[in-house]
Amino acid sequence: MFGKRLAELRNKLGISQYELAARMKLSRGQIANYEQGTREPDFNTLIALADFFGVSLDNLLGREWCSTEATNESAYITNLDGSKEELTEEEFEYLKGSLHLLRQYDIQMKKKVNHSAL
């Protein structure tokens, strides 16, 4: 799962394995091995990759801790044990606003990364 997620994040930024390797001070072969699942990075490399892409380690590793879904004008969060808990309207609106801010931040950070590569 990690390799697939790494490739997704790299492609989303529009950079090659060579570019990512250069920015991370790794070899292109290391990046290819990570993406193919033949090798796994150490903890420091995982943290550096998560920081580079602006994602959590769980996100980088392809782990989803919880999900939300809106059904019939109600919003629910799925807990780790699989149980569902209804959100209040205020909680749902807060989460939507937070997600919007996170996405805006992500866009700005990607622009900054792409601009600094020039």
Automatic annotation (TrEMBL):
Which residues belong to the signal peptide in this entry? Answer: none
Looking up Gene3D superfamilies in the UniProt record yields: lambda repressor-like DNA-binding domains
A Pfam family annotated for this UniProt entry: HTH_3
Q: Which SUPFAM superfamilies match?
A: lambda repressor-like DNA-binding domains
Keywords of this entry: DNA-binding
The HTH cro/C1-type domain, residue ranges? 6-60
Q: Is DNA-binding there in the keyword field?
A: yes
Organism, per UniProt? Paenibacillus baimaensis
Protein known as: Helix-turn-helix domain-containing protein
* Top-level taxonomic group: Bacteria
